[in-house]
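Forwarding the complex inputs:
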Amino acid sequence: MKVDQSPLDKPIRVINIGLESFAEDLRNADIPVIQMDWRPPAGGDLKLIALLDRLAKEA
Amino acid sequence: MARSTHILKSSYYDSVVLMRVASQLKRQDDVTEVAMFMGTEGNHALLAQVDLATVKSKDAGPQDLLIIVVAETEACAERTTQEALRMLTERVSGQDSELDYRPRTLDTALGFLPDATLATLSIPGEFAAREGSRCIDRGLNVFLFSDNVEIEAEISLKNKARKKNLLCMGPDCGTAYINGVGLGFANVIKSGRVGCIAASGTGLQAVVCELDRLGEGVSHGIGVGGRDLSREVNGIMTRYALELLEQDPATEVIVLLSKPPHADVIAMLESLCSVMSTPVVTCFQGARLEGDTFVQASTLDEAAAMAACLVNGSDYVAHSFTEPQRVSALLDRVGNKAAGKRVVGLFTGGTLAKEAQLLLSKDLGFVAKSLEEESTHSVVDLGDDQYTIGRPHPMIAPEARTEKLIELAQNGGFASCGVVLVDLVLGNGSHLDPAGELIESIKILRNSYKLSPEIVAVVIGTEMDPQDVRGQIRGLESSDITVFRSNSEAARYAAMLALPEARTHYMTEAP
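Prediction (whole assembly, two chains):
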């Protein structure tokens, strides 16, 4: 059950999508972090998102 | 009563920001309700469910902010709406001054941090699986705080992550530690030799804080989300986490926390752990397994103590209280004041609530999960969905407990209550002064309602947490609130107050 590449071996460098306080806590601990300005894709229209994802997959 | 609806077009705000502003505005005496939501399908359904939807509110789309205010007068509703807009504008201009660029797309973010290793996601559940999947596609481990992710999506995400040797922690993962870095609601702890795998955020917090008090630290704390050990998910991430910790040179003992796993999953875990060289301490909340594959703990603090003994090579001695003399003195002081009376638990941590409920029921019999039956003992998880509709989690906003205490006082719920049992969970992400909020609420009970039940609090925190754990405890104790550092001890003490016969058992024998 040996795992070849352990995700635990890598230093933590974070992309934070959502709550800004999570990024602030990481920054305070000197962890490199990028806060994303995330917004719902395709205006939050779930049907349109599914369609776009399907098109992207086919492309 | 007046009701106003305001729609702010194309303005996305995350839900916690909105709930914080709404919660602050709701404190005004002439305001009954403030609902601030993005106009997603789920939120429209929620508004209809709580009878706040209006004819106009239906016009808000997923990218539009909806503000609904119910107040005594139209003028008050309008003033509150304007105040909400002002508070949000102030936040946005505050962000601009930080001068840090916020990319709109994942690929741009990766351009800025090309060696990123992990993504933390706390966005609405309906979008979380898609974004999580995109992160995994780009080779990022995922900490998925979001809940309301469908179980099929969870399975798919976890399988995808596993194939790429990546972690998918969650959905509904509140806390994790990777390489000593805390994620989400995390206490500040030192690195050490105990590796944790947890299907519960507050459970993990309780264990790492107890380890910290015992002088031990954590190598990694891998969150797996509450459903990982269900039959459907079949422990995809727990298995992977066990494999990772087994080969991790820093980990000498593993602690595995979960509600009782499905029988099939237990068999799989036993088979996996039986060939591992690292000992595994389990805490499966109320479930005790046959066999000796695991070192089985009954409570969270016992799991931590057993793990600490294993890494130190010392013998574990079961005990009910770490300071029996102090407890004895406390019992002498209180006497039989609360004997035969009701215990009411108001918790912010779900796993802590469950553990308290299990422990109390051993001595007191039936313990309800809600406050509806006034004559029974009750332990309520205020973080449960039914109490958090449209408001922040009580670990962020502990005023939810104040409101519940006052509501109980107003409707006579304290008539037969002798003990109030509460938790205060410190650490990053949590409220900065939960003790202050609790102290104020107890003052209201004592001064305005002339109620003086015994108040018993468990404080989960470390010396390095931002809240100043010692200051919090000092404040509580000077307000005549009895403080314990372990959840099980607080629950046992509460049980002894309500049932003096239990004292013989707990004060003379191990649990």
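The interface with chain B takes residues 1-8, 10-23, 25-26, 29, 31-41, 43-46, 49, 53 of chain A (CB under 8 Å).
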